Amino acid sequence: MKKYVLFFAMLAIATLGFGQIRFGVKAGLVSSSLTQEDLPGIITDAGGVERLKLALEDGNYGVNFGFLIRAELGNGFIQPELNFQSNSANFTLDDLGQPGTSGEILKENYQYLDIPVMFGLRLGPLRVQGGPQGHFFLNSTSDLFEFDEYKQNFSDFTVGYVLGGGLDIWNLMIDLRYQGNLNRFGDHITFFGKEYEFSQRASQWNLSVGWLFGKRR
Q1: How far apart are CA 144 and CA 142, in angstroms?
Q2: At CA 97, angle to CA 100 and CA 99, rounded to 5?
Q3: pLDDT at position 38
Q4: Could you tell me the residue range of the domain that residue 42 belongs to?
Q5: How many CB atoms lie within 10 A of CB 126?
Q6: What is the CA radius of gyration of the chain?
Q7: Bridge pairing between strands 61-73 and 126-142
Q8: Percent of the chain with pLDDT over 70
Q9: From the CB of residue 2, how many other CB atoms can be counted at a distance below 10 Å?
Q10: Does some domain include residue 217?
Q11: CATH number, domain at 15?
């Protein structure tokens, strides 16, 4: 991951020749858009025997915080960011070897480092913006580890995109963004050595507030 952080640093340095440079900090809430369609469903062991039934219960709210560099030229800007994000999801897991028992609700927590590079246009106090985003897996804790057959296989790096808008009031920033991922949700789930994934791709809404230091010229 170090080489990607180095890339961010080089990109930040490159913006120094773009125009006025301002630095900022931000924090906000993240809401995952996850549904229960096309679930992995029945999980079989190596011999093909049905052992478990897995279902997505819901995605929970998460938090993120980080810092940014905004390079402005006229009404346009480039804004690389470095954001830490933490969120979670709930799963229901039924043991088919014990019929008549209700499914147990289990929770997984995820921590990521996101590096979006936003390209935007200012329309008075309003902003429209979008760009690519690197998504780095940092850590995860999971109640699913209660089952010895469960393993995690996260991709260290995935690619996504960000679209949204914002409002600048003096040095205060308010942003609403849609974050999409090109990888399917749940592609880290492994039972009995077999990978399972949901058909949908993970997406999120992000509402944040931030502060830009310095005055815009």
Answers
A1: 5
A2: 10
A3: 46
A4: 2-212
A5: 11
A6: 20
A7: unpaired
A8: 78
A9: 6
A10: no
A11: 2.40.160.20
